[in-house]
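ARCHIVE CARD
CATEGORY: sequence design from structure
SOURCE FIELD: tokenized fold
FIELD CONTENT:
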């Protein structure tokens, strides 16, 4: 190694070691929880297969408001916030609830779409909800608005630094040797084996970690999300267009009318049926699954997400905003109308977990995430080994005898 490159690599190694030691535990937690959630949908479907299916019938299925009314008659479950409907005659309807005043969210329930009979709460839901909070916010107070989100986001940025510095540090003299890059030397022992595993397996998973990190930042920082939208999306296709704000030049009379409308909406509970009818007209009754979500605040715009019957990806969906009072379609965002770059933005979650590549992609991303603790352990062992060798290599300092 030349005299010029030696101090640069020494500085990179120091940065790599210190950052790795500080954030190893965070990365290990995020990696293991991400691996746990990789096949969340498939696990929950297996655990609740009987609850999620009903006997198909020729009778008319209930509307969302009829389902909610039957559920309220059966007991006090809290305020309904989401209703999921399916075109499959054998699929149960799924209802979720808003958070209570104490901040807790009741378990969701499945109901029979023909008679509103309560089928039960899904198993595994609370477990995966906790794992998701640990993955995103480390279970710290404030959830998405707390310090946990900033910690995981900052850790993701530092992981990019680790990936780049690690690649530079292990760049071999024979850079074209595939064996040097991709084959660990299992015949080694101790420090040599730890370094081989750390470096070679790190090379295997580097592209996956880079994709995970760049997409994970989408959920950590609003500036990152806004920048990605500005770069890749048309102005009319951004999230701001999906939630239109009143124009700046609105007159005082218009402001009063809006205030009266909001007051009326607050006084009258929002219903789903106007939204459901408008949605069916928009999709010409051709849908596979639809998710109706009431606004969290005092607005009247209900968010409706719709997936086709053959859709297997979360991102391949149409999205509408429909006024719950009038049934007017405020905005529509159809997947077929998106450009490639906008489809990339819509598919951030599918890209983040590898689902964009099918179940093999999800499996590969799960295994890569599960390997994160390996780098924490081998990195720590390498750091301790370097410190031990430095102590042994340091020349002894003779002690002075008093009086000399």
């Amino acid at each position: 190694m030349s005299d010029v490159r030696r101090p640069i690599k020494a500085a990179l190694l120091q940065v790599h070691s210190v950052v790795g030691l500080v954030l190893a535990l965070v990365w290990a937690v995020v990696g293991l929880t991400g691996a746990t959630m990789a096949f969340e949908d498939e696990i929950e479907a297996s655990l609740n297969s009987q609850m999620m299916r009903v006997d198909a019938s020729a009778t008319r299925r209930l509307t969302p408001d009829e389902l909610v009314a039957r559920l309220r008659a059966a007991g006090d479950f809290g305020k309904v916030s989401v209703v999921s409907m399916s075109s499959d005659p054998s699929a149960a309807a799924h209802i979720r609830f808003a958070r209570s005043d104490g901040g807790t969210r009741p378990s969701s329930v499945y109901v029979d779409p023909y008679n509103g009979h309560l089928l039960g709460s899904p198993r595994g839901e609370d477990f995966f909800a906790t794992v998701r909070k640990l993955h995103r916010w480390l279970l710290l107070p404030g959830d998405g608005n707390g310090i946990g989100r900033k910690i995981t986001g900052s850790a993701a940025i530092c992981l990019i630094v680790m990936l780049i510095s690690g690649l530079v540090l292990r760049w071999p003299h024979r850079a074209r040797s595939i064996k040097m890059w991709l084959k660990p030397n299992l015949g080694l022992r101790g420090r040599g084996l730890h370094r081989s595993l750390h470096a070679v397996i790190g090379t295997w998973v580097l592209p996956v970690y880079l994709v995970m990190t760049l997409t994970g930042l989408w959920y950590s920082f609003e500036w990152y999300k806004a920048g990605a939208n500005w770069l890749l999306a048309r102005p009319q296709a951004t999230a701001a267009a999906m939630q239109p704000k009143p124009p700046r030049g609105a007159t005082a009379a218009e402001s009063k009318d809006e205030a009266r409308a909001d007051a009326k909406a607050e006084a009258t509970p929002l219903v789903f049926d106007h939204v459901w009818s408008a949605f069916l007209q928009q999709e010409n009754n051709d849908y596979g699954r639809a998710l109706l979500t009431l606004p969290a605040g005092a607005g009247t715009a209900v968010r409706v997400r719709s997936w086709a019957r053959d859709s297997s990806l979360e991102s391949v969906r149409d999205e509408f905003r429909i006024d719950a009072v009038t049934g007017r379609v405020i905005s529509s965002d159809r997947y077929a109308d998106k450009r490639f770059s906008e489809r990339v933005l819509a598919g951030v979650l599918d890209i983040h977990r590898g689902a964009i590549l099918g179940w093999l992609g999800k499996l590969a991303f799960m295994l890569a995430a599960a390997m994160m603790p390996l780098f924490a352990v081998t990195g720590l062992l390498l750091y301790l080994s370097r410190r031990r060798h430095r102590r042994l290599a340091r020349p002894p300092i003779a002690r002075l005898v008093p009086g000399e």
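CARD ANNOTATION: The chain has three domains: 5-41+132-218+361-392, 49-122, 235-338. Residues 239-259 have pLDDT under 50 and may be disordered.
SHELF: design records, drawer C
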